[in-house]
Amino acid sequence: MIKYNLKLGQAQYYKRYYTPQVDERDCGVAALNMLLQFNGSDYSLAHLRQLAKTDQEGTTALGIVRAAQALHFETKAVKGGYDAV
Fold it and tell me: Is 51 a member of any domain?
């Protein structure tokens, strides 16, 4: 399993992994793709959309979790508000 640990202060250093959204429904898969690139993987947004079951309204949190799991990431979904982040 791949574990991902990046402190927020380090985010500026990793701009080279930036993945732009093709449209408004790509937010979740674009974010997932940036994590994948950081870990040395290269997937198309189309493939990630398929894994995450992205529809016309976007991707659910569960879709992102399942797509990450399909790509061998260890995931943990938690419920919380913005203050918990």
Answer: yes
Report yes or no on 2 lying in a domain: no
pTM of the model: 0.75
Instruction: Please give the Cα distance from 51 to 43 (Å, whole number).
Output: 11
Instruction: List the domain range (segments joined by +) for residue 36.
Output: 8-84
Is 27 annotated in the active site? yes
Q: Which of 27, 31, 34, 65 is catalytic?
A: 27
Tell me what the pLDDT averaged over the chain comes to.
85
pLDDT for position 2? 52
Residue 3 placed within a domain = no
